[in-house]
Every structure is written in C-alpha cells, then in structure tokens.
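> example.struct
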C-alpha cells in the first residue's frame, strides 16, 4: 500500500483486484491508519493498512485524510467527502 512498510502477496492480490474491477484507491497520504501502542511487553508500531475504495466514475472522493482525533481503537478514523457524479 501507499506508505505501507508491507508489500507481500496479499498486497499484490489487492492491487490486482483493484485493477481488474475498475476500482480506485482513495488513500491520499501516508499517515498511519493503524497504531499499536507500546506497552511494557511489546514495542509500539504503526502502518498504513486501511484502504478506501470506490468504483471509477460513480463517486468523487475529496478531502480524504486520517483523523488525528482519538478513535478509541487501534485503527484511526478515516474521513472524506463523497460527491455523487452520476446515477
């Protein structure tokens, strides 16, 4: 994924699926969407693992970003604006 430190067979299959089904990846920055906070037993880490997909031509996605507000989860909130282009 864009900005991810992971590039493996699952990522390749996802990209193949996106290309074969005429989808568009909406992710626009490399801000980590997943954060595993450190503890006494484990080191913390973060990565870009969440993907937002739309079908080409139907919806315009604008202002896509990972929220800096607390989501109370290990996944950050992803916010964006959708505009319907056609029916």
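> example.seq
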């Amino acid at each position: 994924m864009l900005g991810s430190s992971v590039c493996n067979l699952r990522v390749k299959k996802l990209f193949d699926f996106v290309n074969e089904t005429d989808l568009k990846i909406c992710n626009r920055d490399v801000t980590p969407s997943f954060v595993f906070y450190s503890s006494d037993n484990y080191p913390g880490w973060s990565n870009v693992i969440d993907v937002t997909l739309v079908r080409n031509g139907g919806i315009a996605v604008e202002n896509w970003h990972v929220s800096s507000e607390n989501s109370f989860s290990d996944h950050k909130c992803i916010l964006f604006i959708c505009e319907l282009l056609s029916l």
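> remarks
The chain is about 15% helix and 30% strand.
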